[in-house]
Amino acid sequence: MMQDFLFYLNLGWEHIISLDALDHQLFVLALIAVYSFNDLKKILILVTAFTIGHSITLALSIFDIVRINSAWVEFLIPLTIVLTALGNIVMKNKKQSQNTVSYYLALIFGLIHGMGFANTARVMIAKSQSITIPLLGFNIGLELGQIAIVFGI
Question: How far is CA 86 from CA 23, 40, 59, 102, 117, in A?
Protein backbone atom coordinates (compact mmCIF):
# COMPACT_ATOMS: atom_id res chain seq x y z
CA MET A 1 0.00 0.00 0.00
CA MET A 2 2.78 2.45 0.93
CA GLN A 3 4.68 1.42 -2.19
CA ASP A 4 1.61 2.22 -4.33
CA PHE A 5 1.19 5.58 -2.59
CA LEU A 6 4.84 6.50 -3.22
CA PHE A 7 4.59 5.38 -6.85
CA TYR A 8 1.62 7.67 -7.48
CA LEU A 9 3.15 10.49 -5.42
CA ASN A 10 6.20 10.37 -7.69
CA LEU A 11 3.95 10.19 -10.74
CA GLY A 12 2.11 13.34 -9.61
CA TRP A 13 5.41 15.10 -8.92
CA GLU A 14 6.75 14.16 -12.38
CA HIS A 15 3.45 15.17 -13.97
CA ILE A 16 4.04 18.79 -12.94
CA ILE A 17 7.86 19.03 -12.74
CA SER A 18 8.92 17.28 -15.96
CA LEU A 19 9.72 19.16 -19.14
CA ASP A 20 6.62 17.55 -20.67
CA ALA A 21 4.52 19.52 -18.17
CA LEU A 22 5.29 22.95 -19.57
CA ASP A 23 1.56 23.62 -19.97
CA HIS A 24 0.98 23.11 -16.23
CA GLN A 25 4.02 25.16 -15.35
CA LEU A 26 2.91 28.04 -17.59
CA PHE A 27 -0.56 27.88 -16.08
CA VAL A 28 0.88 28.11 -12.54
CA LEU A 29 3.02 31.05 -13.67
CA ALA A 30 0.01 32.82 -15.18
CA LEU A 31 -2.04 32.03 -12.08
CA ILE A 32 0.42 33.60 -9.65
CA ALA A 33 2.03 36.30 -11.81
CA VAL A 34 0.07 39.17 -10.22
CA TYR A 35 0.90 38.17 -6.66
CA SER A 36 3.91 38.92 -4.52
CA PHE A 37 5.60 36.77 -1.90
CA ASN A 38 3.46 38.58 0.70
CA ASP A 39 0.44 36.91 -0.91
CA LEU A 40 1.81 33.41 -0.32
CA LYS A 41 -1.36 32.20 1.42
CA LYS A 42 -3.52 33.34 -1.53
CA ILE A 43 -1.11 31.70 -3.96
CA LEU A 44 -1.21 28.38 -2.11
CA ILE A 45 -5.03 28.49 -2.05
CA LEU A 46 -5.05 29.10 -5.83
CA VAL A 47 -2.67 26.21 -6.46
CA THR A 48 -4.75 23.95 -4.21
CA ALA A 49 -7.96 24.96 -6.03
CA PHE A 50 -6.27 23.91 -9.26
CA THR A 51 -5.27 20.56 -7.71
CA ILE A 52 -8.82 19.97 -6.47
CA GLY A 53 -10.21 20.53 -9.97
CA HIS A 54 -7.54 18.26 -11.42
CA SER A 55 -8.41 15.58 -8.84
CA ILE A 56 -12.15 15.74 -9.53
CA THR A 57 -11.60 15.22 -13.24
CA LEU A 58 -9.26 12.31 -12.65
CA ALA A 59 -11.78 10.61 -10.35
CA LEU A 60 -14.63 11.16 -12.81
CA SER A 61 -12.46 9.82 -15.60
CA ILE A 62 -11.32 6.74 -13.69
CA PHE A 63 -14.96 5.88 -13.00
CA ASP A 64 -15.61 6.52 -16.71
CA ILE A 65 -18.21 9.18 -15.93
CA VAL A 66 -16.49 11.85 -18.04
CA ARG A 67 -14.63 11.52 -21.31
CA ILE A 68 -13.64 14.39 -23.53
CA ASN A 69 -11.97 14.09 -26.90
CA SER A 70 -8.23 14.65 -26.44
CA ALA A 71 -8.16 17.11 -29.36
CA TRP A 72 -10.53 19.36 -27.41
CA VAL A 73 -8.44 19.00 -24.26
CA GLU A 74 -5.27 19.91 -26.17
CA PHE A 75 -7.06 23.03 -27.42
CA LEU A 76 -8.56 23.98 -24.05
CA ILE A 77 -5.39 23.66 -21.95
CA PRO A 78 -3.47 26.47 -23.73
CA LEU A 79 -6.71 28.48 -23.76
CA THR A 80 -6.80 28.32 -19.94
CA ILE A 81 -3.29 29.79 -19.85
CA VAL A 82 -4.24 32.64 -22.18
CA LEU A 83 -7.50 33.35 -20.33
CA THR A 84 -5.71 33.37 -16.98
CA ALA A 85 -3.10 35.81 -18.28
CA LEU A 86 -5.79 38.03 -19.83
CA GLY A 87 -7.76 37.90 -16.59
CA ASN A 88 -4.69 39.17 -14.76
CA ILE A 89 -4.50 42.15 -17.11
CA VAL A 90 -8.22 42.95 -16.97
CA MET A 91 -8.51 42.53 -13.19
CA LYS A 92 -5.18 44.25 -12.47
CA ASN A 93 -6.62 47.03 -10.29
CA LYS A 94 -9.47 45.00 -8.77
CA LYS A 95 -7.49 42.92 -6.28
CA GLN A 96 -10.34 41.68 -4.05
CA SER A 97 -12.68 40.65 -6.85
CA GLN A 98 -9.73 39.13 -8.68
CA ASN A 99 -9.02 36.81 -5.75
CA THR A 100 -12.52 35.35 -5.72
CA VAL A 101 -12.69 34.98 -9.49
CA SER A 102 -9.19 33.49 -9.60
CA TYR A 103 -10.06 30.78 -7.07
CA TYR A 104 -13.05 29.64 -9.11
CA LEU A 105 -11.15 29.82 -12.38
CA ALA A 106 -8.25 27.83 -10.93
CA LEU A 107 -10.72 25.14 -9.88
CA ILE A 108 -12.49 25.10 -13.26
CA PHE A 109 -9.25 25.21 -15.21
CA GLY A 110 -7.93 22.39 -13.01
CA LEU A 111 -10.85 20.31 -14.30
CA ILE A 112 -9.65 20.94 -17.85
CA HIS A 113 -5.99 20.26 -17.12
CA GLY A 114 -6.99 17.04 -15.35
CA MET A 115 -8.47 15.82 -18.61
CA GLY A 116 -4.97 15.94 -20.10
CA PHE A 117 -3.93 13.08 -17.81
CA ALA A 118 -7.32 11.39 -17.52
CA ASN A 119 -6.83 8.76 -20.22
CA THR A 120 -3.51 7.70 -18.75
CA ALA A 121 -4.99 7.56 -15.26
CA ARG A 122 -7.94 5.48 -16.47
CA VAL A 123 -5.58 2.87 -17.92
CA MET A 124 -3.16 2.85 -14.96
CA ILE A 125 -5.71 2.37 -12.22
CA ALA A 126 -7.47 -0.93 -12.67
CA LYS A 127 -11.22 -0.97 -12.08
CA SER A 128 -10.80 -3.55 -9.34
CA GLN A 129 -8.29 -1.35 -7.51
CA SER A 130 -9.42 1.29 -5.06
CA ILE A 131 -8.72 4.75 -6.44
CA THR A 132 -8.16 6.30 -3.01
CA ILE A 133 -4.43 5.60 -2.62
CA PRO A 134 -3.50 6.32 -6.27
CA LEU A 135 -5.55 9.52 -6.40
CA LEU A 136 -4.32 10.74 -3.02
CA GLY A 137 -0.69 9.98 -3.85
CA PHE A 138 -0.88 11.52 -7.31
CA ASN A 139 -2.52 14.71 -6.10
CA ILE A 140 -0.17 15.18 -3.16
CA GLY A 141 2.73 14.76 -5.59
CA LEU A 142 1.09 17.24 -7.96
CA GLU A 143 0.54 19.72 -5.14
CA LEU A 144 4.13 19.39 -3.89
CA GLY A 145 5.39 19.91 -7.43
CA GLN A 146 3.25 23.01 -7.87
CA ILE A 147 4.49 24.42 -4.58
CA ALA A 148 8.08 23.80 -5.75
CA ILE A 149 7.27 25.68 -8.96
CA VAL A 150 5.72 28.53 -6.98
CA PHE A 151 8.86 28.88 -4.87
CA GLY A 152 10.99 28.58 -8.00
CA ILE A 153 9.10 31.43 -9.63
Answer: 16, 21, 30, 12, 25
Distance between CA atoms of residues 111 and 49, nearest Å = 10
pTM for the whole structure: 0.85
Model confidence over 67-79: pLDDT tens digits? 888 899 889 999 9
| Distance from the Cα of residue 145 to its chain's centroid | 10
**What residues have CB less than 8 Å from 140, skipping those under 6 apart?**
9, 12
Q: Is 137 left (phi over 0), alpha (psi -120 to 50) or beta?
A: alpha
